[in-house]
């Protein structure tokens, strides 16, 4: 008797594989997925059924990359595919433009600001639709992860992180 | 690929040097900044060393004379070994990151696809490193008499080592660094002696101490993981 794994059929489709890999939460910024951050660049299915997922690092020294590779393998194993290779590519180099709209929305909901068109982010606590933009001050160009900088709002006086333009 | 190895060694040794600041920087923000810059340097080193062989073997199993980093990268970050000095570190980072920025820009434009990919990635990061050193050079140069004295003293001491660091890119490098020194009210040191040897494996005594710290765990427990 042949036992068809219910998910195996779905994995015939590389787009579905990329979707499952992309749904993995970022190990450091748990509110966004690695798909929304633009870290997952694609997926391929070889004729022998082997799956290759391609990812790109946000920063070259990003310590989360090993965890991301493991999480992708676990997610695809859970979807019925234990044989997954995770390949890292550098080109095109990751940039903040690769973050999706839903990614930005999820980051802002957590209090992590977008870099802002002029390079100055808006305070995620004070900046709500239609409100005048409050002045902010950069405290440090580096913050809790390599991809963020640290700011302080001159109105509510709260510190906040912003994604650095890259 | 020997140029990539040299750049990789510069980044690796710089990462190890910068990591000496972790938990010892003057403010929490600066601690985080220096740790992040060290991490970027390590990331660049991993990419560059992987083009030349196994990154772990290259980092942990070579002896001093096999390293190709420039002498500047291995120098202590203060006037004496074990004596960390913040102004000294910022002067060192200014000289180093400006040269790295130019080298990575050239890599990004190279015909080799792999080298170009690494260059495109690292050039963005070293732009931030140079910016960080630039901002601090202005604050230290235009700050108190003491901060000005320390950063000028560091520049005077480190400047000769920039000769080896900037071989082949000297004019472009000066065009990048001289305006920053002028803006900070610092004196551009005169070109005097030109110590070199790192690129051919003749290092200062400082590299041995650094490698002993960096390599001891891997050599005592080969293949160790956590
Ligand atoms: Zn606010």
From TrEMBL, chain A:
<dbReference type="InterPro" id="IPR011883">
    <property type="entry name" value="PaaD-like"/>
</dbReference>
<dbReference type="Pfam" id="PF23451">
    <property type="entry name" value="Zn_ribbon_PaaD"/>
</dbReference>
<feature type="domain" description="PaaD zinc beta ribbon">
    <location>
        <begin position="116"/>
        <end position="164"/>
    </location>
</feature>
<dbReference type="InterPro" id="IPR056572">
    <property type="entry name" value="Zn_ribbon_PaaD"/>
</dbReference>
<feature type="domain" description="MIP18 family-like">
    <location>
        <begin position="23"/>
        <end position="87"/>
    </location>
</feature>
<protein>
    <submittedName>
        <fullName>Phenylacetate-CoA oxygenase subunit PaaJ</fullName>
    </submittedName>
</protein>
<dbReference type="InterPro" id="IPR052339">
    <property type="entry name" value="Fe-S_Maturation_MIP18"/>
</dbReference>
<dbReference type="Pfam" id="PF01883">
    <property type="entry name" value="FeS_assembly_P"/>
</dbReference>
<dbReference type="InterPro" id="IPR034904">
    <property type="entry name" value="FSCA_dom_sf"/>
</dbReference>
<dbReference type="InterPro" id="IPR002744">
    <property type="entry name" value="MIP18-like"/>
</dbReference>
From TrEMBL, chain B:
<dbReference type="InterPro" id="IPR007814">
    <property type="entry name" value="PaaA_PaaC"/>
</dbReference>
<dbReference type="InterPro" id="IPR012347">
    <property type="entry name" value="Ferritin-like"/>
</dbReference>
<dbReference type="InterPro" id="IPR011882">
    <property type="entry name" value="PaaC"/>
</dbReference>
<dbReference type="InterPro" id="IPR009078">
    <property type="entry name" value="Ferritin-like_SF"/>
</dbReference>
<dbReference type="GO" id="GO:0010124">
    <property type="term" value="P:phenylacetate catabolic process"/>
</dbReference>
<protein>
    <submittedName>
        <fullName>Phenylacetic acid degradation protein</fullName>
    </submittedName>
</protein>
<dbReference type="InterPro" id="IPR052703">
    <property type="entry name" value="Aromatic_CoA_ox/epox"/>
</dbReference>
<dbReference type="Pfam" id="PF05138">
    <property type="entry name" value="PaaA_PaaC"/>
</dbReference>
<dbReference type="GO" id="GO:0005829">
    <property type="term" value="C:cytosol"/>
</dbReference>
């Amino acid at each position: 008797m042949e036992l068809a794994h219910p998910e195996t059929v779905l994995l015939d489709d590389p787009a579905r594989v990329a979707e499952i890999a992309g749904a993995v939460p970022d190990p450091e910024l748990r509110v966004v997925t690695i798909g929304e951050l633009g870290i997952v660049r694609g997926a391929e299915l070889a004729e022998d059924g082997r799956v290759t997922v391609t990812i790109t690092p946000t920063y070259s020294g990003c310590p989360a990359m090993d965890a991301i590779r493991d999480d992708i393998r676990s997610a695809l194993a859970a979807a019925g595919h234990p044989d997954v290779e995770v390949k890292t590519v550098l080109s095109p180099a990751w940039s903040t433009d690769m973050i999706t709209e839903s990614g930005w929305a999820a980051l802002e909901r957590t209090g992590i600001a977008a870099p802002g068109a002029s390079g100055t982010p808006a305070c995620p606590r004070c900046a709500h639709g239609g409100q005048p933009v409050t002045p902010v001050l950069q405290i440090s160009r580096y913050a809790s992860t390599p991809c963020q900088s640290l700011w302080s709002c001159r109105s509510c006086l709260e510190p906040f992180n912003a994604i650095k333009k890259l | 690929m020997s140029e990539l190895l040299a750049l990789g060694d510069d980044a690796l040794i710089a990462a190890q040097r910068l990591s000496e600041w972790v938990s010892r920087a003057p403010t929490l923000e600066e601690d985080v900044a220096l740790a992040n810059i060290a991490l970027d340097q390590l990331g660049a080193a991993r990419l560059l060393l992987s083009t030349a062989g196994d990154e772990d073997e290259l980092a942990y199993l070579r002896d001093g004379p096999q390293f190709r980093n420039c002498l500047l990268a291995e120098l202590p970050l203060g006037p004496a070994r074990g004596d960390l000095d913040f102004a000294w570190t910022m002067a060192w980072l200014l000289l180093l990151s400006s040269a790295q920025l130019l080298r990575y820009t050239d890599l990004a434009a190279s015909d080799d696809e792999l080298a170009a990919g690494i260059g495109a990635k690292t050039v963005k990061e070293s732009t931030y490193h140079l910016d960080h050193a630039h901002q601090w050079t202005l604050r230290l140069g235009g700050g108190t008499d003491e901060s000005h004295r320390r950063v000028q003293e560091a520049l005077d001491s480190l400047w000769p080592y920039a000769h080896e660091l900037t071989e082949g890119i000297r004019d472009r490098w000066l065009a990048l660094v001289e305006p920053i020194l002028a803006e900070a009210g610092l004196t551009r040191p005169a070109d005097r002696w030109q110590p070199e040897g790192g690129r051919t494996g003749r290092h200062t005594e400082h590299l041995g101490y650094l490698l002993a710290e960096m390599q001891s765990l891997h050599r005592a427990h080969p293949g160790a993981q956590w």
